[in-house]
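Regression test case RT-17, inverse folding.

Input:
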């Protein structure tokens, strides 16, 4: 069962973090998006590295659950930051 779970989460780990990395790169020059863009690039790259380590069972002594969270939380943090940037942009 854990193998099925691992295979299932790898889609969001890789595609989600790659998407954040691409969106961060694409929004670098947009007004009001400097912080979310930089965070997107950093978070996407970090999340992808953690996803690759997770895929190859390299948990860095942190355990399976921690590596799973390190692979997905950058995506969640970026989504929250992008949401705040959107709200702040609408108020200007």
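Golden output:
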């Amino acid at each position: 069962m854990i193998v099925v779970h691992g295979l299932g989460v790898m889609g969001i780990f890789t595609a989600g973090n790659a998407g954040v990395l691409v969106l961060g790169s694409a929004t670098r020059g947009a007004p009001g998006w400097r912080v979310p863009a930089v965070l997107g690039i950093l978070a996407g790259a970090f999340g992808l590295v953690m996803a690759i380590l997770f895929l190859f069972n390299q948990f860095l002594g942190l355990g399976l659950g921690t590596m799973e969270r390190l692979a997905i939380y950058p995506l969640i943090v970026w989504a929250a930051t992008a949401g705040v940037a959107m709200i702040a942009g609408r108020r200007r």
